[in-house]
């Protein structure tokens, strides 16, 4: 029976498919028409506990199938919409009969009333704080950050870039962040002290190098303070041109690789990604351009970096707000107590945010702070 999503959430109809559990959390194996298997994994960091499973009818790229949605017991206070939308984003669900709009509005009102608990802001850089249309940070955002820091609210940059690439934007000459979550959560610094690091296993790096040579695409390996690329073509040039960045110093990568890597960027399309990703043990991808995708461990993302920062201060998720615009921001938008998507954000980011603000070049960053009462004026 084709249940509306809200009915499916309310009716715990047991299990469909084959459930299981591994080091990364609870998963469900769903078999589609034709025998294709789809594994849906829920990371314990974001959605714990994850029982029971319930079923709902989804339409993925016009092909209907029954899929898993993990949901915690109501007494745990987990927001069902977050669980639902995480599934939606992770598996690129194009169309879904979502009858939770009323619940979403209620949640936004609740967030607006609890902003007095916000102690820290985690903001993405590219497309969120730094405009690639003007190649500048809006003055209104700079003023808002200074005002909030004057009130004791901490501001962290939260980016896929490493420290070197963040500094290249000139942003650190305009503001003094209280901390930085770098390389999609692989490293976290509070002030000048690195409090957390999570490197990619060396065998995974070596496998990725081999795939880049076989499939002939550029691969950037990002280290703590620098990065290198092994191959440059039009895909690499176009992706960097869109974001106003220079590609790193070319280097022939030895196997085994001789340095510690925290993030990898493959300059390829979806087709190539589907060829290599299943063979990278315990890795996931976050695409940020038609020809560029971040590769990282399954249990590493911006949310995990934010968790490290919150634990450092002894704060909770509800004490944090996040702002983002792209798919590599999804986990942090779901994780923090309050989340904001920019007006220029991708549809998936907008779908899971508590509030959608104006475009970055229309003072969207500062307007979000004003909306939640964190600044007095723009």
Structural features, described:
This protein is an alpha/beta fold and 378 residues long. The chain folds into 3 domains: 5-99, no CATH class; 115-198 and 316-371, HAD superfamily/HAD-like (Rossmann fold, 3-Layer(aba) Sandwich); 202-297, Hypothetical Protein, Haloacid Dehalogenase-like Hydrolase, Chain: A, domain 2, CATH 3.30.1240.10. It has 12 helices and 19 strands. The chain has helices spanning 5-10, 80-90, 101-113, 139-150, 163-168, 202-215, 234-242, 270-276, 302-313, 330-335, 347-352, 364-371; strands at 18-22, 25-31, 37-42, 53-60, 63-70, 120-123, 154-158, 179-182, 187-190, 193-197, 218-222, 227-229, 249-250, 263-267, 283-289, 292-297, 320-324, 338-341, 355-356. The strands form 4 sheets. An 8-stranded mixed sheet has the order 10-9-8-7-6-17-18-19, sandwiched between helices. It has a 6-stranded mixed sheet with strand order 13-12-11-14-16-15. The chain has a 3-stranded antiparallel sheet with strand order 1-2-3, with no helix packed on it. A hairpin with a 5-residue loop joins strand 2 (25-31) and strand 3. Helix 4 (139-150) packs parallel to helix 12. The longest helix has 14 residues, at 202-215. It is globular, with a radius of gyration of 21 Å. The termini are far apart.
């Amino acid at each position: 029976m084709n249940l509306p999503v809200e009915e499916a959430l309310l009716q715990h109809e047991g299990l469909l498919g084959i459930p299981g559990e591994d080091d990364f959390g609870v998963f469900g194996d769903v078999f589609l028409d034709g025998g294709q298997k789809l594994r849906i994994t829920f990371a314990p960091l974001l959605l714990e506990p994850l029982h029971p499973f319930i079923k709902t009818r989804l339409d993925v790229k016009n092909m209907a199938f029954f899929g898993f949605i993990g949901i915690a017991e109501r007494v745990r206070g987990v927001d069902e919409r977050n669980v639902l939308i995480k599934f939606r984003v992770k598996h690129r669900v194009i169309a879904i009969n979502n009858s939770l709009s009323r619940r979403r509005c209620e949640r936004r009102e609740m967030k607006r009333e609890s902003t007095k608990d916000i102690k820290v802001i985690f903001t993405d850089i590219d497309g969120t704080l730094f405009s690639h249309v003007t190649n500048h940070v809006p003055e209104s955002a700079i003023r808002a950050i200074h005002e909030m820091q004057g009130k004791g609210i901490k501001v962290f940059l939260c980016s896929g870039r490493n420290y070197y690439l963040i500094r290249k934007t000139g942003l650190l000459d305009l503001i003094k962040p209280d901390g930085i979550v770098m390389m999609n959560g692989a490293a976290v610094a509070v002030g000048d002290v690195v409090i957390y690091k999570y490197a990619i296993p060396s065998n995974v790096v070596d496998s990725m190098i081999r795939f880049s040579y076989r499939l002939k695409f550029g691969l950037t390996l990002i280290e703590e303070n620098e990065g290198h690329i092994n191959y440059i073509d039009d895909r690499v040039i176009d992706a960097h041109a869109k974001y106003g960045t220079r590609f790193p110093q070319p280097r022939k990568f030895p196997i085994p690789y001789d340095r510690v890597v925290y993030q990898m960027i493959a300059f390829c399309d979806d087709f190539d990604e589907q060829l290599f990703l299943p063979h990278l043990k315990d890795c996931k991808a976050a695409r940020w351009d038609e020809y560029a995708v971040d590769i990282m461990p399954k249990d590493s993302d911006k949310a995990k970096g934010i968790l490290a920062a919150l634990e450092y201060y002894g704060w909770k998720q509800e004490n944090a707000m996040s702002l983002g615009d792209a798919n590599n921001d999804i986990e942090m938008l779901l994780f923090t107590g309050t989340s904001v998507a920019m007006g220029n954000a991708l549809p998936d980011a907008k779908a899971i945010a508590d509030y959608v603000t104006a475009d970055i070049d229309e003072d969207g960053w500062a307007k979000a702070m004003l909306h939640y009462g964190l600044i007095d004026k723009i």
